[in-house]
Design brief:
The chain is α/β, with parallel strands linked by helices. It has nine helices and nine strands. An eight-stranded parallel β-barrel has the order 1-2-4-5-6-7-8-9, surrounded by eight helices. The chain is globular and about 50 Å long. The chain binds SN-glycerol-3-phosphate and calcium ion. Calcium ion is lined by residues 38, 40, 112.
């Protein structure tokens, strides 16, 4: 049995169906019934925490260059929707502040610390606290350094380490850092691994769920949750097997 209620997490929103990390993708995730949303944060050149996956704006906007070279005003002037479809023309790059105001509560937000700009971690934590959103936020990262910085700054927030391999050192380090979650790539999960991690007191939350077969396998392995671009399929599968 899962140790926590299963987390069906819309990855960058319902990003199979709407442009990732935009309000359209988050709104659609909520409409589909998801109550967990994953998003990625970086710092703008003038210190605002903004929501985008890549280090550069090129793939998901009509601009070019590193996110960290853009002011908030310049980022807000970008079109973050047309690359996905004409129906989304003019979608704006969200700020973390507005995402917290609008979605923390209706959803639990899994905020992935992405940027390499110093100051991202304290700025993110300050915004979460200012919004009164701490009960509705989990911080995640692939970066050991960012999690090491975040853990002592925000003992109240659950945190998870995104990893591409799970070995004994990974587990020991996750526990040493005081993280609640270990987040392996989904194709690493087996029932035995999940059971072992549960036995060590960790919540097991998968990422990298590329298709429905892997989604089903991760559920059956006993994962406590996963990010998916297609939350509708995951919610349907969970409802069927309930
Ligand atoms: O669930 C975490 C997942 O988002 C990590 O991969 O590259 O999509 O940020 P990425
Ligand atoms: Ca992410």
């Amino acid at each position: 049995m899962p140790r926590v209620p299963f987390m069906a997490i819309a990855h960058r929103g319902a990003s199979s169906y709407a442009p990732e990390n935009t309000r359209a993708a988050y709104d659609l995730a909520l409409e589909m019934g998801a109550r967990h949303i994953e998003l990625d944060v970086h710092l703008s050149s003038d210190g605002e925490v903004i929501v985008m996956h890549d280090d550069r704006v090129d793939r998901t906007t009509n601009g070019k260059g590193p996110v960290a070279d853009f002011t908030l005003e310049a980022l807000r002037a970008l079109d973050a929707g047309s690359w996905f479809g004409a129906a989304y023309a003019g979608a704006q790059v969200p700020t973390l502040r507005e995402v917290l105001e609008r979605y923390a509560g209706p959803a639990h937000l899994h905020i992935e610390l992405k940027g390499r700009t110093p100051g991202l971690v304290p700025a993110t934590i300050a915004l979460v606290r200012a919004a009164g959103a701490s009960p509705h936020v989990t911080l995640t990262s692939f970066s050991h350094d960012l999690l090491s910085e975040a853990r002592p700054l925000a003992p109240e927030l659950p945190m998870g380490w995104l990893v591409s391999q799970v070995d004994p050192e990974t587990v020991t380090e996750t526990l040493r850092l005081g993280l609640e979650q270990l987040c392996p790539r989904a194709d690493l999960l087996t029932p035995a691994l999940v059971e072992e991690l549960h036995g060590r007191g960790l919540i097991v939350r998968a990422w990298g769920v590329s298709d429905a077969a892997l989604m089903r396998a991760a559920v059956e392995a006993g994962a406590d949750g996963m990010t998916v671009n297609f939350p509708d399929l995951l919610l349907d599968y969970l409802a069927q097997r309930a």
